């Protein structure tokens, strides 16, 4: 609750790439030493809690959300050429002339993430966590975490591209989106719109369906949402006392720091044997209150995880 209040109170700070937390003035250690510490903390930890955000997937090539990257043109080229869209989020804000075109774009977006292969950072994370007790908390909706780890070990607190919900929230139900999306993409072919009768609707009230994700519309915070949070809360309750807890912040940006980063900082400060490792390509925030209980690594996330895997193999 406090971290969400922070986001409301300091929104302009976050929007400009900052943080409301006072930061340490300690000079970061050399990269090679940071990697050694990372690997050593993995070995020592009794429990590891991973916070995976957009930077984790972006490091593996899923970098089409904010910009018209090569991967964006690969998957969304026909929409970019026809409508001038630059990045998938730009497409979600675009003023579509018809619902058929909107769903043509949205089905392409969902299909791309639903069927994407497991990306290299997640493969390296599997290797790093092998044999350890862990839990994954993710704000990503792209299904990568679920592809990499057992569903009971993952909390998707911002939704999941595999499911639809009622856009009017008439029901607590969420339902399969994978098969309808496949059928829409197949019917669309080389075009940019889907047949009118294929636009998905709520089976209860008849309103249009919508992906069960936060950020684009009326996100359903129903039973499944609370179940996801409960998984993370239960893991913390059972494992945060009298043990070495390692928090890993992987690719946490400035859109939702209150969901992973700030709770991790607060817990690291509160728990006597906790340690927090933050990895980010663009930011290097080490709060003063945990300057002796954490480290911030500013580097390519995919490279960091690959280097940690190599370090673990050597020792």
TrEMBL record:
Alphabetical UniProt keywords: NAD
InterPro entries given in the database record: DHS-like_NAD/FAD-binding_dom, Ssirtuin_cat_dom
Species for this entry: Candidatus Limosilactobacillus merdipullorum
Stretches assigned to the Deacetylase sirtuin-type domain: 28-315
Name this protein carries in UniProt: NAD-dependent protein deacetylase
